[in-house]
Amino acid sequence: MAEKGKKKNFKTIPKSESELNDCKKPSMKTASDVISRLLWDGSLPQDKFYVGYLDRFDGIVEKPFSALDWRDPSIVDNHTLALPKHRIQYFKYLTRKVWDKRRRLDIIFGSTGFPLSIHDFISKVDNDILNFRDENFDDDDPSVPKRAVGNYSEEIINDEEVDMSDRPNFFIAARIQNEDTVEKLREVSDYIKARDDLLGECCIPPEMLHMTFSILKLDSPADVCDAIAALQAVAAQNLPEVTLNLEGLDNFYHRVLYSRVEENDNLTKLRDCLVNELIARNCTITDRYSFVPHVTIAKLSRPVTRQRNSKYIDQYLYLKFEDDEFGTEKINSLYLCEMGAARREDGFYKCAYEISLNKMVDVS
Asked: What PANTHER family would the database entry show (predicted)?
């Protein structure tokens, strides 16, 4: 029996080398490393990179990389914008983060294990932007901006001057209806509305939240029937269950604010299966090569752009939510939606067809 008052000695069992390796996170390249590479690697276009840094008064501020003086702050004058390295929070290529201190993301060097090289990632982002089509831009609703397709400019004032017959008119989507997820997305919209009344008009109503799988141009009732047949074929294949994970915020051209949807194998299988069935029936897919899974939260309209005298959604309006997790959504049904101002009684887009992934439901 141990003497009273004496502490028992416990031997510390050393961890094996494999256990230590499992616990140790890979070393991440620093902001200084990123700056050096952007300054000296001619294959990375400096003018397309942005820096997010912590300002003592304004919080997170984003500036073009080329607008900053990267010399030591102690040797520049008071009129030069130099930046202490420890304040840097992230770097972006256009609208996509390529280095993020908080999330331990490093695409510039791949030091934390990102699967793509920075050059492959840049190519992917450039391709996404080049081919991006968002069904809300082509909506006939006068509250959203109409965008010409093909080689037409977005700056066309009178749509009657051009042939708009090539515009897509349908899209296939999954609704976002999980109450917790919808409520978290609503918090972002409410925050924007409280700070900018005009932008509040551009926020997507909760009943219209969705993720688009494919955008279509269907010219006839026969084409619509072909798209419906494709949906039925997808449902008949008993694909694995798909759950969407909504993580963080991002934007397209600073005009569309959205929640990122994390890509996963089951989501990719469902989308690929849908595209293949549509192609097999000669349906015209306008976004075949530019799938960017996302849930739109707000998008600028032309009237609001004119009234605000700005064509951008200011980052400070959503920055506090940028890295939030917004929840999940299990996909139970797919909807063939009509673009336009028409809405169902529940506020969602008018649908030519709705299909359950377990059983078909005709709502036409």
From this structure: LEUKOCYTE RECEPTOR CLUSTER MEMBER 9
Q: What does the alpha-carbon distance between residue 27 and residue 304 come to, in Å, rounded to a whole number?
A: 46
Q: Give the whole-angstrom CA distance, residue 63 versus residue 107.
A: 19
Residue with tokens 């702050």: 73
Q: What is the DSSP letter of 201?
A: T
Sheet containing strand 105-106, edge to edge, reads: 59-64, 49-55, 88-93, 96-100, 105-106
pLDDT, mean over the chain: 80
For the ranges 76-80, 90-94, 246-250, the lowest mean pLDDT is seen at 76-80
Where do runs of H (alpha helix) occur along the chain? Answer: 17-23, 31-40, 118-131, 179-195, 197-200, 221-235, 265-280, 302-308
Token code pair at residue 198: 């005009």
Tokens representing 290?
């530019």
Phi, then psi, of 309 in degrees rounded to 5: 55, 35
**DSSP output for 137-160:** GG---TTS-----TT--TT-S-GG
H or E stretch covering 91: strand 88-93
DSSP codes, 19-69: HHHHHSPPPPPPHHHHHHHHHH-TTS-GGGEEEEEEETTTEEEEEEGGGSB
Give the span between the Cα atoms of 364 and 343, in whole angstroms.
13
> How far is 345 from 340, CA to CA, in rounded Å?
15
Token digits for 48? 């397309």
CB 89 within 8 A of CB 100: yes
- Highest mean pLDDT of the ranges 93-102, 109-118, 272-281: 272-281
The 10s digit of each residue's pLDDT in 11-34 is 555 555 545 454 567 789 999 999
Residue whose token pair is 């809300």: 136
Identity (one letter) of the amino acid at 151?
Answer: N
